[in-house]
């Protein structure tokens, strides 16, 4: 009779449902003792080194038309670099450095038949999900910076041994005077990022979630509480989500999740399943939307930027789905070979500048569109300057020279940039199109753009 009683503690209301759903999404569970063994039994180490080593040992590089495996020395060097985040310059800097390694890979030195080569090795295979390892664990003990005690985030998700997601699970019944329990999880996550806590874990994280069984919010490293966002899914319908939530799993799979727990936890879960299909919660929708493997890769690769003023930014659902629809549209061709166009409507303060940066990044990283050029048209000098700074800060204009060459300083310059230039990004005021098309040698491209 005890197991029929509803449980409202965070374990039964939030954490166990989150863990079972992650397993249904294709994440492999590691009991806390297994996860500790994979990091050499050291709680001050946060990377699952043995998993990372296995992945890197299977990576290859091409030289002179032939594929070669990584040497043990290169594998050791990559692991050594990755496991020593530069926290002396602050968490944000350390996180950005590791993010760049994730996105662009890491160079190594190899010798093939006596010849020195310097290939770049991808830590994550962004194009083939099956070439990556996905694990998660609970109660992940990490030694604090003082070396005396530890913190235990509720759930940590790893890709190739790197802790990319941290989840705090809270009970759904909060104290009304303290506010929703989701806020407690956010507060705990922010506390754990402080220099005297466990910042070495957050040097790797890309998404942070706070859930309470019925709802959830997400952010990233150093996201202030007020900017942790809800999610509204537009691509995965409820029928698909319900199928994932109620995916039938073998007894062995279920037992693996509960083997390290008290038997009553497994009995409670089995009793829950006996009642029939489980309903979707807001927590389920958030986890499916952000932590299915493909979506997580999209969020990390396309919808994450670092702004020098604001910090690390991860896209909101409006930006993500707006850009997804735009990418789908511009890949379509009319009968005359031209592309389809469209409009994304923004209100003041809705993040349109960052939407443009996300879009440019997505275009450049999408194989079918990476040769594209982006022309940003505004109607005010101050907005043009602001956008240029946003692009530069977000990493799309890597130097002052890039930014200067991207600016259309006159109608003549604009016509030249469009017709014969090779700048990937061009900024212009709409007024300059008027003078550009009146030039004797005005390009047909400028005329077409004006139309």
UniProtKB/TrEMBL annotation:
InterPro entries recorded: P-loop_NTPase (IPR027417), Restrct_endonuc_type1_HsdR_N (IPR007409), SWI2_SNF2 (IPR040980), Type-I_R_enzyme_R_subunit (IPR051268)
EC number per UniProt? 3.1.21.3
Top-rank taxon, per record = Bacteria
Tell me what reaction this enzyme catalyses. Answer: Endonucleolytic cleavage of DNA to give random double-stranded fragments with terminal 5'-phosphates, ATP is simultaneously hydrolyzed
Question: Which Gene Ontology molecular function entries are recorded, alphabetically?
Answer: ATP binding; DNA binding; type I site-specific deoxyribonuclease activity
* GO BP annotations listed: DNA restriction-modification system
Cite the Gene3D superfamilies for this sequence. Answer: 3.90.1570.50, P-loop containing nucleotide triphosphate hydrolases (3.40.50.300)
Family annotation (Pfam families): HSDR_N, SWI2_SNF2
Question: Which key words tag this protein in UniProt?
Answer: ATP-binding, DNA-binding, Endonuclease, Hydrolase, Nuclease, Nucleotide-binding, Restriction system
Query: Which residue numbers delimit the SWI2/SNF2 ATPase domain?
Result: 318-449
SUPFAM superfamilies xref list = P-loop containing nucleoside triphosphate hydrolases
- Which residues does the UniProt record annotate as the domain Restriction endonuclease type I HsdR N-terminal? 8-226
Family, per the entry?
Answer: Belongs to the HsdR family.
The name of this protein is type I site-specific deoxyribonuclease
């Amino acid at each position: 009779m005890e197991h029929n009683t509803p449980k409202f503690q965070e374990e039964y209301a939030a954490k166990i449902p989150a863990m079972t759903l992650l397993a249904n999404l294709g994440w492999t569970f590691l009991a806390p003792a297994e996860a500790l063994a994979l990091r050499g039994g050291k709680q001050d180490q946060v990377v699952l080194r043995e998993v990372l080593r296995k992945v890197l040992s299977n990576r290859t590089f091409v030289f002179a038309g032939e594929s070669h495996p990584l040497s043990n020395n290169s594998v050791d060097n990559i692991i050594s670099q990755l496991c020593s985040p530069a926290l002396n310059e602050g968490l944000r800097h350390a996180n950005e450095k590791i993010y760049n390694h994730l996105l662009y890979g890491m160079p190594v030195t190899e010798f093939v038949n006596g010849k020195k080569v310097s290939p770049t090795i991808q830590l994550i295979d962004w194009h083939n999900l099956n070439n990556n390892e996905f694990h998660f664990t609970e109660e992940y003990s990490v030694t604090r910076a003082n070396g005396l005690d530890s913190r235990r985030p509720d759930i940590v998700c790893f890709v190739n041994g790197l802790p990319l997601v941290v989840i705090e699970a809270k009970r759904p019944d909060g104290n009304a005077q303290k506010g929703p329990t989701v806020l407690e999880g956010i507060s705990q996550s922010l506390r754990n990022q402080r220099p005297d806590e466990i910042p070495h874990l957050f040097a790797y994280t890309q998404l942070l979630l706070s859930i309470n069984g019925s709802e959830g919010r997400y952010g990233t490293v150093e996201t202030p509480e007020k900017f942790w966002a809800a999610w509204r899914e537009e691509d995965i319908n409820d029928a698909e989500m319900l199928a994932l939530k109620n995916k039938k799993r073998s007894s062995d799979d279920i037992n693996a999740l509960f083997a390290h727990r008290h038997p009553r936890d497994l009995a409670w879960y089995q009793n829950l399943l006996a009642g029939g299909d489980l309903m979707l919660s807001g927590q389920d929708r958030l986890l499916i939307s952000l932590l299915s493997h493909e979506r997580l890769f999209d969020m990390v690769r396309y919808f994450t930027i670092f702004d020098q003023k604001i910090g690390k930014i991860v896209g909101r659902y409006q930006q993500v789905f707006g850009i997804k629809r735009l990418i789908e549209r511009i890949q379509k061709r009319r009968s005359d070979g031209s592309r389809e166009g469209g409009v994304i409507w923004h209100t003041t303060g809705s993040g349109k500048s960052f939407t443009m940066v996300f879009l440019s990044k997505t275009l450049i990283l999408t194989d079918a569109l990476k040769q594209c050029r982006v022309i940003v048209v505004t109607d005010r000098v101050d907005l043009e300057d602001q956008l240029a700074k946003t692009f530069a800060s977000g990493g799309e204009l890597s130097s002052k020279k890039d930014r200067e060459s991207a600016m259309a300083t006159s109608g003549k310059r604009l016509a030249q940039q469009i017709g014969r230039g090779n700048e990937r990004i061009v900024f212009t005021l709409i007024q300059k199109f008027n003078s550009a098309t009146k030039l004797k040698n005005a390009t047909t491209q400028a005329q077409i753009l004006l139309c």
